[in-house]
Specification:
The protein is built from 13 helices and 20 strands. It is of the alpha+beta class. The site of flavin-adenine dinucleotide has 33 residues, from β4, α3 and β11.
């Protein structure tokens, strides 16, 4: 049985792998039900499940970087972000920005508009300047510039991405600074901090009245020794503190207070891709909505209130980031910067009630969901949120006229 990273999506469908274009063409033409390409399986939504077959592309034979020149590289679409980062680094190049982890495939990350944080930094998909796609008709095509905004964020609905041309920047080092701050300071200064730092984000720690802020800024200085990564230990303490709440409610706050007192500030320098992404050892489920920036503070206050009043079992940190706007038809960041608020629950917990309450708050604030993270939106909702959905429909009808990639869960969103 196939499962995604968190275990919330499972499928009994056959998992097939392809290593050549001919094999892929055969698989497309002989598939008895919808064929769903998979990257690293790190999405929480039914993007890979629900079809007749799951198609792995990690055995597809292609060099990681096919060619590169200043500011651009043509790469294997199915290579992982960390492999690409290392290979680009060897050529003195780098991704402009990355998210919290780097184990996703580039195609998988772009297909759902995966993002990092930075007021002037767009999501990874916005860096796609060209692509080679094997369509639902089995044709190998080079994407024309007028179709590119449709392909940049396309959920594996148009075909199989094999090569991607992307904008790169010269390799650079980042100085990472991490510190604990009171919740009120974080809310009051978030917009100033986004303006002041290349990359800025914070995590609110439920029931503590505090949060942790992280900034990354470009530096000409050489890498220094990274501190020991205590994130996983911190999460274990938060989990244990939540269990103590049942003994006495004040115990949770006391343990969290002690943990945050013991947390020392971090300050170190490393290659951009090494410091931006970390390892996520503890499994969780996640919902993330991208909001108009002016709505962020009110939404965060409301979610904090909902946790304190109705969902006291939520202990996982709430992550807050900002991403610059772009022009992809299905990008949640289309036509302007958005502040992203992500809520999580441990993979062993029932997330339904909390996520439902959060989603109501996000939607009332005009939010658009992360395509790879939990949401309940259907066709009518998407029509309201995405003015270019019709253009995407037309492109899908042209590139995959028989719906070879359209599984039932995706049909609920993409069949007009
Ligand atoms: C621990 C964790 C941390 C995360 N951190 C972040 C973060 O910081 N920022 C953020 O924005 N998101 C984050 N995510 C979400 C994640 O980046 C997205 O869900 C991403 O799409 C996962 O990439 P993947 O390679 O696992 O793709 P999958 O989940 O396997 O697939 C995603 C989509 O891409 C399609 N696809 C895959 N390969 C191809 C191909 N070759 N051609 C066409 N379509 C293809 C699939 O069909 C599917 O629709 C995180 C997820 C986890 C579990």
């Amino acid at each position: 049985m196939w499962t995604n990273w968190s275990g919330c999506q499972t499928s009994e469908a056959a998992v097939v792998a392809a290593s050549s274009i001919r094999q892929l063409q055969d698989q497309i033409s002989s598939a008895t039900g919808p064929l769903r390409p998979v990257g690293a399986g790190h999405s929480f939504t039914p993007l890979v499940t629900g079809g007749g077959q799951i198609l792995r592309l990690d055995h597809f034979e292609k060099p990681t970087v096919l060619s590169s020149s200043e500011g651009t590289a043509r790469v294997n679409a199915n290579a992982r972000l960390h492999e690409l980062s290392a290979a680009l680094g060897d050529k003195g190049q780098a991704f402009r920005n990355l998210g919290d982890i780097n184990v996703q495939s580039l195609a998988g990350a772009m297909s759902t508009a995966t993002h990092g944080t930075g007021q002037t930094l767009p999501c990874i998909a916005a860096e796609m300047s060209g692509a080679q796609l094997l369509t639902g008709t089995g044709d190998l095509v080079e994407i024309a510039s007028e179709d590119l905004p449709g392909v940049q964020v396309s959920l594996g609905l148009l075909g199989i991405l094999l090569e991607i041309e992307l904008n790169t920047v010269p390799a650079f080092n980042l100085r990472r600074r991490v510190g604990v701050r009171p919740l009120e300071d974080l809310l009051a200064h978030m917009h100033d901090n986004w303006a002041a730092h290349r990359c800025y984000e914070f995590f609110l720690l439920p029931h503590s009245g505090k949060g942790v802020q992280i900034s990354h800024d470009v530096t000409p200085d050489a890498p220094s020794k990274p501190p020991v990564d205590l994130d996983a230990l911190g999460l274990q303490v938060m989990k244990a503190a939540s269990a103590l709440r049942h003994v006495h409610p004040s115990l949770q706050r006391a343990v969290l207070g002690l943990m945050l007192k013991l947390q020392s500030d971090e300050d170190y320098i490393g290659e951009s891709w090494r410091v931006l992404s970390s390892t996520r050892a503890m499994r969780f489920n996640e919902m993330e909505y991208h909001l108009p920036p002016a709505e962020a503070e009110a939404v965060l206050r409301e979610i904090t209130r909902v946790i304190e009043t109705r969902h006291r079992d939520v202990w996982f940190p709430i992550e807050v980031r900002q991403t610059a706007g772009d022009s992809a038809w299905l990008s949640p960041f289309q036509h302007g910067a958005r502040v992203s608020v992500a809520v999580h629950m441990h993979s062993s917990q029932d997330y339904a009630g909390f996520f439902r309450d959060c989603e109501a708050i996000f939607r009332a604030a005009g939010g658009r969901p992360h395509w790879g993270k939990m949401h309940s939106l259907k066709r009518r909702d998407l029509e309201e949120l995405y003015p270019d959905l019709g253009k995407f429909d037309a492109l899908r009808a042209r590139l995959d006229p028989k719906g070879r990639f359209l599984s039932p869960p995706l049909a609920e969103m993409f069949l007009p």
